[in-house]
Design brief:
This protein is mainly α. The protein has helices at 2-10, 12-15, 29-56, 68-105, 109-114, 125-140, 142-151, 156-174, 180-202, 212-237, 245-280. Helix 4 (68-105) runs antiparallel to helix 6 (125-140), helix 6 (125-140) packs antiparallel against helix 8 and helix 9 packs antiparallel against helix 10 (212-237). The longest helix has 38 residues, at 68-105. Keywords: Fatty acid biosynthesis, Fatty acid metabolism, Lipid biosynthesis, Lipid metabolism, Membrane, Transferase, Transmembrane, Transmembrane helix. It comes from Arabidopsis thaliana x Arabidopsis arenosa.
Amino acid sequence: MTTFNYYLAEHPTIVNFRWSPTQSYASTWSFLFTAVSSYIIAAVTLHLLLLITLSLSNRRRGFSLGPIPALHSLTISIISAVIFVGILLSAAAEIRDTRWLWRRTRTTALQWFLCFPVGTRASGRVFFWSYAFYLSRFLHLFRTFFSVIRRRKLSFFQLINQSSLLCISFLWLEYSQSFQVVAILLTTVSYAVVYGYRFWTEIGLRGACFPFVGNCQAILLGCMTVCHVGVLCIHLVKRGGCNGIGAWLFNSVLNAVITLLYLKFYCKTRSMMTKANHNTT
């Protein structure tokens, strides 16, 4: 356990991490804008090319990718689990090392999880794992291309969702935004379960008899909403407020948009499933 804790929370690379355009890969605004725009253009272009190709060849189905989607799901599930454990251990270490300072400001561990003190910089253990989470977001982008190739389907919600989450994770680091520890914990545990389930079904094993992935996403969005309310309450009550509250506000707006789009997508999917079951019976 000591070795495990060392490599996930006490290693010098983790402890001495600092978010900086000169020291951290993919840490500039230009890189972010280029990555997001390239992702959207590439996805739309691939979708159009496949539509043209399949229409000319009179092919109705997409192309098989073999074990690639399953391996992708397994990889994300493992990475998410590692990030979850890493940031949990790192948060515990940060609480242990800075508890003496909190007594002066009357800050509790729960308040720290939701609200960083003003002046917090993006350095140290927690931000190392936030950076790892940010980099892992690029792996999620491949799922859009898998969907286009396999199902000839490009969802507007998927494009907006993936792009927004990439931007949000960048803002967490750029502005040392409050709330990110809880957000990463909730998101990574959700991803570990969801992508583990996707790997399970993609290798041919039996799935759940209910929309497992959709329900997990709904629970995640619900928990996020509750935590956002908690951040706002602490910011209004706490002297000095929370660090990075401007970025948090932008984050909240994006989350609200994602939630609305998801609810629309979820209701549409449920309606189609109900209609299909009705036609079957």
